[in-house]
Amino acid sequence: MKSWIISTCLLLLFTSTAQAQDGESSRNDSLMQKSQDTVLLKTYADRYNPNKAILYAAIFPGAGQIYTKKYWKLPLVYGGFVGIGYGIKFYNDLYKEYKSELYYNLENGYTDNGDIRPGDVYTTQSYRTAVDRARRERDFMVICMFGMYLLQMIDAHVDAHLKEFDVNPNLQVKLQPLVEQDQLLGRQTGVSLIFKF
């Protein structure tokens, strides 16, 4: 039994070294036979990997736009985040203010039957409605913030994909004045939209 295992191991060892020698000699031969008519082209788009762009944008918002060298989009990205952040803060402050007023009314006995405390113009029911509306708007702004985050990631990914997209320089869209003479309708004037491919 032991001799069988030893002979199998030796056989495997010799066949693997023989294959390695055959592979090495064929590799050397292929280098000698390689033709010079092929040229490796490194494309412009290879420098912009879409997976890297979306990863950078996911880690730090705006980094995907920097990676794809679309610097003009950074004010849009950060402006969107600042604007939505301001909206979240605004509606959260309103929510807290209305909620404290509602709790004050409930603790001091101003119920929903139309009682208005002195110096105030809103009923308890009005405060309940305002609290619900402010909370709903704040939650909507949080959803918008998440949407802005996803949008800037998608934008970086698409920009990296379209780096090598070739646009025909003859492609044109023009608005031109139009004057036509028709036998049935007479002279017509207007604006025409012309597409040139």
Order of strands in the sheet with the most strands?
1-2
Mean pLDDT: 81
Number of helices: 5
Our estimate of the beta-strand percent is: 5-15%
Shape: flat
Structural class: mainly alpha
How much helical structure, as a percent, in the residues? 55-70%
Supply Rg: 36 Å
Order of helices and strands: HHHHHEE
Low-confidence segments: 17-27
Summarize the entry for a quick read.
The chain has helices at residues 2-33, 50-59, 63-67, 74-107, 124-161; strands at 172-182, 186-196. The protein has five helices and two strands; from the N terminus they run αααααββ.
Molecular structure report:
By secondary structure, the chain is mainly alpha-helical. It has a domain at 45-166. Helix content is 60%, strand content 11%. Helix 4 (74-107) runs antiparallel to helix 5 (124-161). The model is unreliable at 17-27 (pLDDT under 50).
What features would you highlight for this structure?
single chain, 197 residues, mainly alpha, two-stranded antiparallel ribbon, 5 helices, 11% strand, flat
Topology, please?
Elements: H1 2-33, H2 50-59, H3 63-67, H4 74-107, H5 124-161, E1 172-182, E2 186-196
Antiparallel strand pairs: 1-2
Helix pairs in contact: 2-5, 4-5
